[in-house]
Amino acid sequence: MRRPASAPGLALAAVLAAGCAVAPPAPPAPVAATTPAAALPELIALSHFFASREATWGYRVSPDGTRLGWIASHGGRHTVHVRTLGADDARPIDTRSPRTIYWFTWARDSRHVLYLQDQNGDENHHVYLASIERPNDPPVDLTPAPGTRAWLDRVISSDPDHLVIAWNKRDRAVFDLYRVNLTTREHALIAENPGDVTDWLTDWAGRVRARIRHVGPAERHLEVLRDGGWAVLQRLDLEEFNLQMLGLTPDDRGLWLLSSRGRDRLSLVRVDVASGSESLVYDDPELDLEWVGMSERTREPLAVVTYPGRQAIRFFDAALEADLAVFRRHSPTGLRLLSFDDGERLVTVEVFTEKGYENHLVDRRTGETHLLGRSQMVPFANALGTTEPITLSARDGVRLHGYMTRPSGFGAPGPMVLVVHGGHWARDYWSYAPVVQFLANRGYAVLQVNYRGSTGYGRAFRELAVGEYAGKMHDDLIDAVRWAAAGGVADPARVAIYGGSYGGYAALVGMTFTPDVFACGVDVVGISNLVSFYETVPPYWKSSVMPLFHKYVGDPRRPEDRRRMEAKSPLFKADQVRRPLLIIHGARDIRVNVRESEQMITALNQAGKDVRSVVFPDEGHRREYGNWRNALRHYSEVESFLAGCLGGRRSGS
Fold it and tell me: Which of 421, 420, 567, 536 minimizes the C-alpha distance to 481?
């Protein structure tokens, strides 16, 4: 792959001149060169990052407190493993499928596990039931209708023989609720979707209690079931889409919500079921709440989490906070609550940094802690990069937050990869991120920016992205690159852009709208034409995703919107590409159809541009691949491509 021949000084001038003719944002304090590239840490094999036989995660204790389940390697993929607490009888669950499982939970009887799995990357996940006591029995597909998608809505605490699932069996565009008998496998429809319900709430007994309806172009209703009918409890505007129904209060008179109704930030509130009156329980003065942990035993909130940079956690349960105080350390760490037994006497937790994680079992009766498993990256901690929160100002004064990861021994200024998160309604977090650490280990600084429109920073910050695809959202990325170059971190002649989904679109925008800024780009499952993307979205996005898409990007059914959307589409600027591009897509992608990449590849080839492409026939729109073979191929392609244009390292394994 060819490498830009520009001298560093000329390349820096090109970076500062790209886009609008405005002054760059204030740089960070200058960073002195540290050690030569020869002092970079050991090269870690790709398999440790993306196909590890040692990786374990997701430890969950059974409801009766007698068993433990987790995800680990088996037969060239990851699947559920189980063992009896206090015994050495660990064994895998044979799912009879070659595809990896990433999530599971226990059935209430503690004798079965439930997991989600698709068969070819198309995200048509089914709900499966596997027996712990009869390991030779094949798992049972509880949702055996081809072409449908389902997920687990409720494991009923008071009824181990039944559970509630959401399923689009009746109509592919909407999800109804069904009560499933785990013995007979019979399904009973308990809530039929009238066509506009985007979310349901069942109580701990599996009874339908509330729902959210999208009733107009910019209005949603929170409704409760009262006196045999549905009553409107709150009216929400379109931007309050992130409301989450957490559960019923202990007296059944209120709803716990994570809500931004009438406020800028996502906050914890209690809403009276009879009157609709709302009381604020907890909010953060600057940030959205990212997560609320609820107690199934008390029906009260346990803790909330924010990410001002690294994780901040605020406990409501003082006893739980004291029980987990043993994991507070001098160096920065984060904490995730994974599971409790029925009595909340046993709890599994994950303690993490940017370099890996540990999983522990805590016996709250005795105060004992037991190490269950460590990240496969722990032995390589000294070879991994350090991730620091950063803040910078965009050219129009908007404050941006993000993260910079640099490998040990990084010689600054050096090569850098700008990794753009997907969504766009999402954000980057301080945590262990395999892609980030893989890139850092290959010798690159890695820059992540929560550009305007990202979640986590309130409604006003999100709405700065309205109409700004390929506009100010992209300016934020360019300003972050300038910031890193002006601060002496990045060599401006050796900066790549990498992203998936919206991040893939951003990579294509970077290579077409600002072709002199990036030495090369990697687009993974990205959008090339905003209009054709609209034409192939899943049917169940009609009420949930597409109203937001219309607000932020446009509705191609309106001629003026269509023209604007085409003007912001990289496909029509393929002739502007000047540097190498790598395009990767899954043929089974149902969110961003593979034709988005196919048409971009065709346009680039017709324009005589340097493009390499990889299409996986049995994968879809995911960061985690369904099998290790595809994962290793993906990242082998990425490391070879980046080594060719940035001069970094490659392992070939």
Answer: 420
Residues β-bridged to residue 271:
255, 278
Going by C-alpha positions, the residue among 78, 5, 49, 6 that lies closest to residue 638 is 49
How far apart are the two ends of the chain, measured CA to CA in Å?
20
Question: Looking at this protein, which amino acid is placed at residue 138?
Answer: P
CA distance 21 to 18: 7
Q: How far is CA 559 from CA 562, 563, 571, in A?
A: 5, 6, 19
Q: Mark whether 214 is an active-site residue.
A: no
Of 273, 269, 249, which Cα lies nearest the Cα of 259?
Answer: 269
CA 375 to chain centre: 19
From the list 428, 476, 589, 618, the catalytic residue is: 589
Catalytic residue chosen out of the listed positions 597, 621, 634, 651: 621
Task: Specify whether 621 is catalytic.
Answer: yes
CB 370 within 8 A of CB 83: no
Q: What is the pLDDT of residues 437-466, one digit of tens each?
A: 999 999 999 999 999 999 999 999 999 999
Diameter of the chain measured on Cα atoms: 74
Q: Is 589 a catalytic residue?
A: yes
The Cα 428–Cα 414 span in angstroms is: 23
- Whole-structure pTM over 0.85, yes or no? yes
Q: pLDDT (tens digit, 9 = 90+) per residue, 340-356?
A: 999 999 999 999 999 99
**Contact between 498 and 522 (Cβ < 8 Å):** yes
**Whole-angstrom distance, CA of residue 616 vs CA of residue 607:** 24
- For the chain, list the domains and their CATH numbers: 386-646 (3.40.50.1820)
Query: How does DSSP assign 259-297, residue by residue?
Result: E-TTSSS-EEEEEETTT--EEEEE--SSS---EEEE-TT
Q: At what angle do helices 502-513 and 472-486 cross, to 10 degrees?
A: 70
Q: Considering 501, 528, 569, 651, which one is annotated as catalytic?
A: 501
